[in-house]
Design a protein that fits this description.
- The protein is an alpha/beta fold.
- The chain has three domains: about 170 residues, NAD(P)-binding Rossmann-like Domain (Rossmann fold, 3-Layer(aba) Sandwich), CATH 3.40.50.720; about 160 residues, Dihydrodipicolinate Reductase, domain 2 (2-Layer Sandwich), CATH 3.30.360; about 80 residues, 2-Layer Sandwich (Alpha-Beta Plaits), CATH 3.30.70.
- The protein contains 14 helices and 17 strands.
- Helix 1 crosses helix 12.
- The structure holds L-homoserine.
- The site of L-homoserine has 11 residues, from helix 7.
- L-homoserine binds next to helix 7.
Length: about 425
């Protein structure tokens, strides 16, 4: 049988990885899919750019629409990222009756509802395993492996770049900017790395995970998003003194009042497996009522790991070529007419414990003022630490760990603390989660 012909959009980190993995493992892949899978066409903005992967046998075009519209191309792999022109390219591929593989989390999180509707109408598959957690087959695990469960939560490290940065800050006390530059050089970061460090990439991925875990529509605009740019080496050190690690987490949790969807730095107990997931690795904890807690771990970014997921999707599509579209695995795990409208909770209504760090004047009565404000708002203190003053310094750091309280009460407390005469500047707040 003839090999299946793939048109690849984008020859960056993931495109290059996909070409390399398809070549390297061609035989194994054909044994699995029942046919060979080859890239016959590709698009790239710059045809002259030197590349480290083999391009023989591939017709390279500058216009991605020429690939999408090429009659020989059977599957389009969209690996350019960003929402436009990726959205229009994917919709055009669908209109042309071609199946699509994409690694584009922003595209799926923001335009997935529209894209899946179009794909279902045309009877084609849009596969997106590579969009979440790089090489970890988390989409397949939740959508298919856990299909017998009612899933109560999905939480974990879903951005490799931020985990790489936080790990190097903790282990090597390296500066944020220095480590970010290394993550960029290694091909982990997005074209605009602010998307990583400000938490947006993790929010895209969390949107997708929540949809396939709970059977809700993709609702990126409802995710609470905070990045890691305010985290200091000092905070990482204080967290360690209390037995915690700071990780950038995505958390989607079903509560009786509604669904929590949030992305932010989080203190987690250092004995948890996820607290020990370092570098570019991702890990996702999924809790189902039948299976209990399960953890998925592996490389969350990089050329070959992401290509591993892209190629798995290509194999899946080839195997499904002749299946009746109505009998395929639904794009978002649940039948599209069976999605639930569970409310997404606003951040103010969510309860967590908190780590607070403030700069206080070292004088009697200051701590009493701080604890009075917390007490009046019903906030219980779990632990408190005041660092010995450094000679000549005007302020001493005070760190407080609280018990769980609604975010709106904590917002009020922080406002009052920052208004105290003997508290300098802003209060640093990091949420805590037992991940139990
Ligand atoms: N920039 C992303 C990350 C790439 O660092 O996780 C993988 O999606």
């Amino acid at each position: 049988m003839q090999p299946v012909k793939v048109g690849l959009l984008g020859l960056g980190t993931v495109g290059g990885g996909t070409i390399s993995v398809l070549k390297r493992n061609a035989e194994e892949i054909a044994r699995r899919a029942g046919r060979g899978i080859i890239v016959t066409h590709a698009s790239a903005r710059d045809l002259d750019k030197p590349r480290q992967f083999p391009l023989d046998g591939i017709e390279i075009l500058t216009d991605p629409f020429a690939v999408v519209n090429h009659p020989d191309v059977e599957i389009v792999a969209e690996l350019i990222g960003g929402t436009e022109p990726a959205r229009e390219l994917v919709l055009q591929a669908i209109r042309n009756g071609k199946h699509v593989v994409t690694a584009n989390k922003a595209l799926i999180a923001i335009h997935g509802n529209e894209i899946f509707e179009a794909a279902t109408r045309e009877g084609v598959i849009v596969a997106f395993e590579a969009a979440v957690a790089g090489g970890i087959p988390i989409i397949k695990a939740i959508r298919e492996g856990l299909a017998g469960n009612t899933i109560s939560s999905v939480a974990g490290i879903i951005n490799g770049t931020t985990n790489f940065i936080l790990t190097a800050m903790r282990e090597q006390a390296r500066s944020f900017d220095d480590v970010l530059a290394e993550a960029q050089a290694l091909g982990y970061a997005e074209a605009n790395p602010a998307i990583d460090v400000e938490g947006i990439d993790a929010a895209h991925k969390l949107t997708i995970l929540a949809a396939i875990a709970f059977g809700i529509p993709l609702q990126f605009d409802k995710v609470y998003i905070e990045g890691i740019t305010d985290i200091t080496i000092e905070d990482i050190g204080f967290a360690e003194r209390f037995g915690y690690r700071i990780k950038h987490l995505g958390i989607a949790r079903r509560m009786p009042e509604g669904v929590e969807l949030r992305v932010h730095p989080t203190l987690i107990p250092e004995r948890r497996l996820i607290a020990n997931v370092d570098g570019v690795r991702n890990a996702v904890l999924v809790v189902g009522d039948a299976v209990g807690p399960t953890i998925y771990y592996g490389a969350g970014a990089g050329a070959d790991p992401t290509a591993s997921a892209v190629v798995a999707d290509l194999v899946d599509i080839v195997r499904a070529f002749t299946t009746d579209p109505g009998n395929r695995v639904p794009h978002l795990a649940f039948q599209s007419d069976a999605l639930s409208s569970e409310e997404i909770l606003p951040m103010e209504e969510i309860s967590t414990a908190y780590y607070l760090r403030m700069q206080a004047v070292d004088r009697p009565g200051v701590l009493a003022d701080v604890t009075r404000i917390l007490g009046e708002l019903g906030i219980s203190i779990e632990a408190i630490l005041q660092r010995e003053p450094v000679e000549g310094a005007k302020f001493v750091p005070v760190i407080i760990l609280t018990q769980a309280v609604k975010e709106k009460n904590m917002n009020q407390a922080i406002k009052q603390l920052e208004a105290l005469e003997h508290i300098n500047g802003t209060v640093m707040r990091i949420r805590m989660d037992p991940l139990a």
